[in-house]
Specification:
This protein is α+β, with helices and mostly antiparallel strands. The chain has helices at residues 3-29, 33-42, 49-80, 106-121, 170-174, 200-206, 273-284, 297-339, 341-346, and strands spanning 91-97, 126-132, 143-148, 160-166, 178-181, 195-199, 216-219, 224-231, 246-250, 258-265, 291-295. 46% of the residues lie in helices and 19% in strands.
């Protein structure tokens, strides 16, 4: 269910309940109590048809909300079983936005991240480490246009995919499998051959029926890059839908001043690595902040938070509405029996 449609439905449900309750209340407020007593004593107090209509509408609304809640709960359960394309368990992350005043050149940026990775990897509790421009499921993704030297019949005006500078060790650290070719190597810089790694979604969409290895890609404002590897696809914006195509370039060939560090623990509690990461960053640059440091698995839980909240909200609304509908049915039946008690007694 679309979130906006669901919110509108909930608002309409509340408004409908208020209107449905307000109409009979205003009508009964204008009735003379003596008239009501006379009617009661006379035994003619049958429930008005409008009350039955309101109860039926309330029951229908309750059923809609309960069915919607069930659908959301089923969707949430299915999302829990979706493979995000990576393994977040045992991995910590830290966002490191560098300031332009201290890191004004590509060489300075690459030098900072290179020294950071060297020191972090030297920790005994670390299995591997890497950096990437934006993490999977972070909601941040830059879509870049590009060209293919051999488009293979594709429309060259409709070529766009996610773009990711990443370091050596990144794929290994987050558990993105290498399908074909090779991963990035330490030290690949601007003086080395321009290379690129694509994911499976990219290869399927832009190289259908062809071998992606050896193909050449030209990103806007850059030089031709040779495809040297294919990795598994990951979900970037959320667990819903299919993974979007992405391509990766070596960190040393396009360093960015704000990147995420990922570190996989070697058989220890990953949370214990955060203080060590902060200490190392402080040793390299005492003025450099470490932002949003914590378990990588938090991003997976955060991506499910919206669906979990919607499911809980609709379930509560559906339960309350169903309870009110049951009370309405009870009230109508009670009034029906009370109004015909004398008639039943005579019979």
């Amino acid at each position: 269910l679309d979130g906006r449609v669901l919110v509108v439905g909930l608002v309409l449900s509340v408004v409908t309940g208020l209107v449905a309750g307000l109409a009979p209340a205003l009508r009964e407020a204008g009735v003379d109590p003596r008239e009501g007593l006379g009617t009661q004593l006379g035994g003619g107090g049958r429930p008005r048809g409008s009350r039955g209509v309101l109860v039926v509408a309330q029951v229908a609304l309750a059923v809609v909300l309960v069915v919607g809640a069930g659908h959301l709960l089923l969707t949430l359960r299915n999302l829990r079983g979706v493979d995000p394309g990576f393994d977040p368990l045992g991995v910590v992350r830290a966002y490191l936005p560098l300031t332009e005043a201290r890191y004004g050149s590509d060489a300075e940026i690459a030098g900072f991240y290179g020294e950071l990775l060297r020191r972090v990897r030297a920790l005994p509790a670390v299995e591997s480490a890497g950096v990437v421009w934006t993490l999977p499921l972070s909601g941040r993704m830059a879509g870049y246009s590009f060209e293919l030297r051999d488009p293979g019949g594709l429309d060259p005006r409709n070529l766009q995919a996610g773009y990711q500078p990443a370091s050596a060790g990144y794929f290994e650290t987050v558990g993105i499998p290498l399908i074909r070719g090779r991963a990035f190597r330490d030290g690949e810089g601007p003086d080395d051959e321009p290379v690129v790694i694509v994911d499976e979604a990219f290869a399927r969409r832009f190289f259908p029926g062809r071998d992606p290895l050896g193909q050449q890609i030209l990103a806007v404002g850059e030089e031709w890059r040779r495809v040297v590897g294919v990795v598994g696809s990951v979900r970037r914006r959320g667990l819903q839908g299919e993974p979007e195509p992405q391509y990766y370039v070596p960190l040393g060939q396009d360093p960015r001043d704000a990147m995420d560090l990922v570190v996989r623990a070697a058989g220890s509690e990953p949370g214990g690595l955060v203080p060590a990461i902060r200490r190392i960053v402080g040793e390299i640059d005492p003025g450099q902040p470490v932002v949003a440091a914590g378990p990588f698995s938090d991003l997976v839980g955060r991506s499910l938070a919206r669906s979990r909240f919607l499911a809980m909200t609709v379930t509560v609304f559906g339960g309350v509405t169903l309870l009110l509908a049951a009370l309405g049915i009870y009230g109508v039946l009670a009034q029906l029996v009370a109004g015909r008690t004398r008639e039943i007694g005579i019979r």
